[in-house]
Amino acid sequence: MNQFPQQLKKLRKATNTTQDDLASQLFVTRQAISKWESGDSTPDLTNLIKLTDIFNVSLDTLVFGRDEQDSKVDTSEFVFDPKRNRYVRRFGNMNFWDFLAGYWWVLVILAFIIGFFSIFWAASAH
Fold this sequence. Notes:
Layout: H1 4-14, H2 19-26, H3 30-38, H4 45-55, H5 59-64, E1 78-81, E2 86-89, H6 96-102, H7 104-125
Antiparallel strand pairs: 1-2
Helix pairs in contact: 2-3, 6-7
InterPro entries: Cro/C1-type_HTH, Lambda_DNA-bd_dom_sf
Keywords: DNA-binding, Membrane, Transmembrane, Transmembrane helix
Pfam families: HTH_3
């Protein structure tokens, strides 16, 4: 499951960057880069973000080896679940109460329309 070491080495070699060059860009030692590539240690979040900028890839590509094409997901509906290593619906299977929580304003508008027409109907009945 841990594909980061292979991805880091692959991206570094694809850009013809040495471990020394990468270490100087990240302000770490060459040994730290070597440990990351061997899987003996992992970089902190700050260095992961810097690596995505250096290699111009997404975090999913860097950490999980996903293609950039796979990363094109509607983020308004889906969110990445790292426990399952896949995208899942942001709100899960929506039930009635979830719908109401997200779209309460629809009920307000419906109540206003129904109230308006009931007043209009009661006035015209007299």
